[in-house]
Amino acid sequence: MIIAIFFVGCNSSDSGKESIQYDTLKNAPVPDLDTIEKNIDSATPNLKNYSNQRFKNVTVEQLSENRFRIYGQAKVFEASFSWVVEDGHNELYKGYEMTDAGAPAWGSFDFTIEAGKERENSTLTLILFEGSAKDGSRQYELPISLG
What we know:
Elements: H1 2-10, H2 15-26, H3 33-43, E1 49-50, E2 55-64, E3 67-74, E4 80-86, E5 91-98, E6 107-114, E7 125-131, E8 138-145
Antiparallel strand pairs: 1-2, 2-3, 3-6, 4-5, 4-7, 7-8
Helix pairs in contact: 1-2
């Protein structure tokens, strides 16, 4: 309605245009809420979920060229898991995170990492894993390509 008033006000010197624009806007269909929500959803990039026996609904969202947000759920011993970013040859970054609940419950996690490529043609891979209580080896690895 405000747009119609604006057009009418801007074109008041030419009554023919005023009538046509007002009639066009007056008869324009108004989208329903479902249509608006579908358009918003289609504008949002589809984020893929990754899962295995210990991790589920894991999503990686690229915030900037070298910054990534990782969130999801894990069922890990003492609510702790580790991660590493590799380029196919070397471990470039590594760390550990906590969930809000330990196994046997599924605990939620949400963290951000900075990970840049050392070589332009390499592909970064984030690997989430649970460390073995026995020997510290990687168990239940979940590899996720960062590009």
